[in-house]
Amino acid sequence: MSYKIPGKFRSSAWFGHDTHDNFVHRSWMRNQGMPDDQFDGRPIIGICNTFSELNPCHAHFRDLCEHVKKGVYESGGVPLEFPVISLGEAIIRPTAMIYRNLMSMDVEEMIRANPIDGVVLLAGCDKNVPASLMGAASCNIPTILVSGGPMLNGKYRDRDLGSGTDVWRYSEERKAGLISKEEYSKIEAGMNRSAGNCNTMGTASTMGCMVESLGMGLPQNAAVPAVDANRKIISRMAGRRIVEMVKEDLKPSDILTKEAFINAIRVNAAIGGSTNAAIHFKAIAGRIGVDLDLEDWNKYGTDVPTILNLMPSGKYLMEDFYYAGGLPAIIRILGEHDLLIKDCITVNGSTIWENNKNAEIFNDEVIKSFDKPLLDKGGLAILKGNLCPDGAVIKPSAASAHLMKHTGKAVVFTNIEDYLERINDPELDIDENSVMVMQNCGPIGYPGMAEVGNMGLPPKILKKGITDMVRISDARMSGTAYGTVVLHITPEADIGGPLALVKNGDMIELDVNKRSLNLLVDESELDKRRKQWKPAPKDHLGGYQKLYVERVLQADQGCDFDFLVGCRGADVPRPSH
Ligand code: FES
Fold first, then answer.
1. CA–CA separation, 45 vs 41, rounded Å?
2. In this predicted model, what pLDDT tens digit does every residue of 124-142 receive, in sequence order?
């Protein structure tokens, strides 16, 4: 039975009938000062606000939310703000990733359970964006995502500081004794100068660009700084537009098509986006029912040059990107070189090409030309081989050219604790040609697949002036990090993947051009090791962590829970009174 009034919006099930239940719903909402006309059938817009004082990247979200509300009222809708879990990437332990699926469930169920006809998602810091989109995609009601935007450029003396990227850089320099404690502390104080997410092309900015290139955000959503007045305008325009989207019934399933994901894969290559995109794209696609394969990254992204000169692949920061033209300029360049599927519809009702075809470029040092790019081939590379039968990921634009083809002896760390315990030991048997291997940091092994894959180099190697080595693991890496780092090895070690069988001294061969990663050990020896391998006990895990390890999918499947994949829609739940 349907509780909704035919021809009316979803919220009519709560407010549109002359029943006891509807009396209760209206009466309680009136205690917030809502007059009669708020229940006359106009669209009710949920604003999913991830503000939290434990998430510094979202410090300005109360303000942005007020601007969304203004826009909703201006278009004749009724805005209702609601909170959900908020994941502060830099604060949460052991890793925000373990809570991404939990947050997505919160978003999904709060949309479905409430009288909401359309939703504006406010999200910025890494996992909040995919989590919100995953939840909203599962419900498939009209949705716009407003990103929080990047923070201003970090500053130390006359230097710009990039979040994350310079943390890694100066931490290594501090470890090598190249900078003093006082200098290190001043750098720390200059790193984060305003609200907003990381200002490098880390995962948060990558996700902001993903939202815009998928068509789920308004033009310029990705790069406008968090504290720029234009961010308020985008919020207000999103508020106006979502009301129209409800009337047009323009839903995520109309926007999040396979073609839109292909555009986003190409944009990710052009901007030098984070390796985490491979996981989050798959999870979002899975929720809306789009068949996105890991191989699609090789198929559609490989030949796209990186044209954005931003840390960690390049030099500049997100604030510079906005002044140079922002993501519209990148999309325009891709469109002019036949690397954009132009008729994909976006939240404003226009196609991605209509939105971006006239974008201007104001600084060709930041946004390079297609013919003189930062890097000829910028896409993520998906590796296969006997060490990663279901795939592994490397970001060539953040790696060292001389290590793209490399064979070296494995130095194995069985987990992150083992690594931390031994990495500073001057007796550690390792040199710059070794391959650092970390096991048991995948989705189940860690659990939550922490961003520990870019293992810092041993001090004795750093002191020689060496800054990069081949590192491989089943972990993830912060989008702000760099190096020749192979990640997301699938299947992971904790479920008996070949990574679990690697021993010290084994030879490992990486060939990024051939997209291969192999363990050069006889199959008979591997068989012997496989028979001796035992899974680690999980009895110590309880509650959500237990659910997580029992139901999480591997990295090539987006690390979603198996029971969340697919779109369940937002049929109106039955009444409770
Ligand atoms: Fe929030 Fe980097 S810590 S985006």
1. 12
2. 999 999 999 999 999 999 9
